[in-house]
Design brief:
The chain is about 70% helix and about 0% strand. With about 425 residues, the protein is mostly helical. It has one domain (about 5-400): Na+/H+ antiporter like fold. α5 (about 95-120) crosses α8 (about 170-195), α5 runs antiparallel to α14 (about 310-335) and α6 (about 135-150) packs antiparallel against α16 (about 355-370).
């Protein structure tokens, strides 16, 4: 089929059809996962004629640009204090409260990672066709553990907004923990790629030296801006955004890392005073709804339909159980603040178990680098869909009687 017609068919399936289904279902399902579901259904059933030319070359390019922008926006979202107004009950004043919050965020990432990695090493890696293509069982288990531990920051923010203001202190607390965990996840991905031998700093070529200089320069720009309190005009900041995005993506690719890692860290390096001038939410929403659905739809579509069977679903359900139980256990063992009831702590865990699109991005990176097999990737994509669909209803179930018990005076409202 002609390229333009194939691109049109691509957009109709993964953009227009996804939006239509979202409206038809009364917005009860997060729109971010609908393109993935469409892709998975088409891959499993083989209903999509090859003559349509879907996925199209242009659609692939648009989707890739969208997911790069989504990763960049996720980096910008780590500057939460720059563009999201805090609720009166959330800021922590004492050193002990700060320590408890950081410890809770660390455990919410560490416990699912350790449990997931151990389960992957001793069970999942032994399943047929689950061995990592690079043959390293330990690194494959660590890769799966990272995917189980992730909390999907961009999608979680969207779900939190859909939940409304009634439980805003709890939902914003979950977002702040996800900010911490999201940053650690991307650092962990970078370290894992170095450990696998895909990234290298030893060749010393001029281009590699330039790639090393790029993040140093971005950090220096941010430090100078903060030290001298320099805030460029808004138009200049807008011009700087594609420079940061392209520079970060190119540098990480040149160093043997994934371009998405560079896009994320480039967003995180933008000075906070600059992000205050930007509609960060709109940038992320445009990437999430207008461009990236093609990437995620194609990710589901490109999965071998033979992989999507009962065995894959069983594995996904097992991974979901591990992820949910570990997240809930983490917030029960170490809640982010001392004045939370058990029900409220569990509700935060319900939000943090949301995998969303960031898990698929992480899994795609690890699959491309040979650290995840196609069977593991298919199970993780299914896990991302299931956990995201579970998030809102699970949160509401845990707080189904939010007003039947009086709150203490110290509890934020």
């Amino acid at each position: 089929m002609h390229t333009l017609l194939a691109t049109t068919a691509d957009a109709l399936i993964f953009l227009l059809l996804a939006w239509g289904l979202w409206r038809l279902l009364g917005r009860s399902i997060p729109i971010a996962v609908i393109p993935i579901i469409i892709g998975l259904v088409l891959a499993a059933t083989g209903w999509l004629p090859a003559s349509l030319g879907v996925p199209s070359v242009i659609g692939d390019g648009i989707g890739w640009a969208g997911v790069l922008l989504l990763a960049f926006a996720a980096g910008l979202e780590t500057r939460q204090s720059a563009h999201i107004r805090s609720s009166s009950g959330l800021p922590v004043a004492s050193r002990g409260a700060v320590f408890q919050f950081v410890a809770s965020a660390a455990l919410a990432l560490l416990l699912p990672f350790v449990v997931g990695a151990l389960a992957a090493y001793h069970y999942f890696s032994m399943l047929p066709d689950w061995t990592a293509p690079n043959g390293d069982r330990a690194l494959g288990a660590i890769a799966l553990g990272l995917c189980i531990a992730v909390s999907a920051l961009p999608v979680l923010i969207g779900i939190v907004r859909e939940l409304g203001p009634l439980h805003r202190p709890l939902t914003q607390m979950a977002v702040r923990i996800a900010v911490f965990d999201d940053a650690v996840l991307w650092i962990g991905l970078a370290l894992l790629l170095f450990a696998s031998g895909d990234a290298t700093l030893s060749s010393g070529s001029p281009l590699q030296m330039l790639a090393l200089a790029v993040p140093v320069a971005l950090v220096a720009v941010g430090a100078t801006s903060r030290r001298r309190n320099l805030v460029p005009p808004r138009w200049a900041i807008w011009l700087a955004l594609p420079v940061y995005l392209v520079a970060g993506s190119w540098a990480s690719s040149r160093l043997g890392l994934h371009a998405l890692l560079g896009a994320y860290f480039a967003g995180a390096m933008l000075p906070p005073t600059w992000t205050r001038q930007l509609p960060v939410e709109r940038i992320g929403r445009f990437a999430l709804l207008g461009l990236a659905p093609l990437f995620f739809g194609h990710s589901g579509l490109k999965i071998d339909g033979d992989v999507l069977g009962w065995a894959s679903l069983q594995a996904s359900l097992a991974l979901l159980a591990v992820s949910v139980v570990a997240k809930l256990a983490a917030v029960l063992i170490c809640p982010p603040t001392s004045n939370l009831s058990r029900r409220e702590a569990l509700s935060i865990g319900a939000l943090l178990q949301c995998k969303g699109l960031m898990e698929i991005v992480a899994a795609a990176i690890l699959r491309d680098k040979g650290l995840l097999s196609e069977h593991a990737f298919a199970a993780l994509v299914t896990l991302a869909v299931l956990s995201t669909l579970l998030t809102g209803p699970f949160f509401r179930f845990l707080l189904r009687r939010p007003l039947d018990q009086p709150q203490s005076e110290s509890q934020p409202v």
